[in-house]
Amino acid sequence: MPEIPHVALLVETSREYARGLLRGVARYQQEYGPWSIYFEPHGLDDPPPDWLSDWKGHGILARINSRETAEKILATGIPAVDVRGALPDLSIPFIGVDNRPVAQLGYEHLRNLGLRSFAFCGTPRGENPNQDNRCDWFVELVEQGGQACDVWLGAQSKQHAATWEEQQQDMARWLRNLPKPVGIMTCHDDRGQQLLDACRRANLSVPDEVAVISVDNDPYLCNICTPPLSSIDVNPSRIGFAAAELLGRMMQGEQPERQVTTLGPPRGIAARRSTEMLAIDDEDVAAALRYIREHATEGIRASQVVSRAAKAPSTLERRFKKTLGRTIKAEITRVKLSRARLLLTETEYPIATIAERAGFAEAKYFCEVFRKHHNATATEYRRRFRDE
Asked: Which GO terms describe its molecular function (predicted)?
């Protein structure tokens, strides 16, 4: 009988992203194990455990956040996979988030609110490459859209790190100087919570003056914010599963083809009150957009939306497209597909039921539209992105 692999998980449990990674590892282990798991709850910045130096296991999966931890893992000579990506020069393969579609999803969500001013709130450059990339992609998307993007990254070095109060005051000053209304994407939920606090200090209304979206979708942190924080779900379970899969191959002697592997796109947006606003001057367009978002899943048609215009219904379609860059019909389809994606990933409903609840008259037509927009069938999408 072959020996059961002994695998050490050096992953914290304090945030939803890391817990999602562990769920993915657990799913892989249940399907392809068994593994004997060495796991002790700890924090991201905790030193490596003392037992690691003499450990005689077969594989390590870790959120490596310090050079000390990296060196201790490398010294074991045991196959290892990093799921943090804080040290880009490591000779340990990394699996993580593809930050380009994450930034695109955040930008499009804010732009769809009718906003034309944007900013990014992140962490000091060099602190984490993933957060740097997230910022860079967001800025590029904003600039491609013809706008400038303000950026706040905080203190640039740990030697001169500001206190919490100093940092909050600096962030509040930055917020006061931004054009309003403004849509801000933050690098993660921790920064999003901090930004909302700074908005209160600056006497700025969220979301009316400042709409905020963050990344990681930690439900506990997002829902204790005032107001609750919209956030992008990057599907960490999928990343944990892929990391465990790679580690399994490495423990069998396979060498990874790439040092860095990014998985995407993200699962979607958990929209909460921090982005519940519409920054549209045209009252008819704003009313049409609000009506679509409230009733798209009821199977409404573009003609119904046009007929509700208080002034000049004959020009509403043209004004709508000029304001949002797409037709009324396209917006109805976009909202319906957004609902369908959520149902695919969070329910057991069959495809026909999902089509009906998303506002499509026929399941066959829904499947055709879904495949056209996502380059995958609804069933494939569910299998790929669902957090089982």
From this structure: DNA-binding transcription factor activity; transcription cis-regulatory region binding
pLDDT score, position 156: 62
Summarised one tens digit per residue, pLDDT across range 179-200 is 999 999 999 999 999 999 999 9
> What class, spelled out in words, does domain 99-234+269-275 have in CATH?
alpha beta
Q: Confidence class of residue 1 from pLDDT cuts 50, 70 and 90?
A: very low
- Residue whose C-alpha is closest to residue 285's, from 305, 263, 265: 305
Q: Which fold has domain 283-385?
A: Arc Repressor Mutant, subunit A (1.10.10)
Q: What confidence category does residue 157 fall into, taking pLDDT thresholds of 50, 70 and 90? A: low
For the chain, the domains span 6-96+236-263, 99-234+269-275, 283-385
Q: How far apart are CA 251 and CA 244, in angstroms?
A: 10
* Mean pLDDT along residues 205-230: 93
Token pair of 292 as six digits? 């679509």
Instruction: Report d(CA 365, CA 138) in Å as an integer.
Output: 34
| CATH number assigned to the domain covering 6-96+236-263 | 3.40.50.2300
Average pLDDT over residues 153-163: 68
In what side-by-side order are the strands of the sheet with 80-82?
36-39, 6-10, 59-62, 80-82, 94-97, 260-263
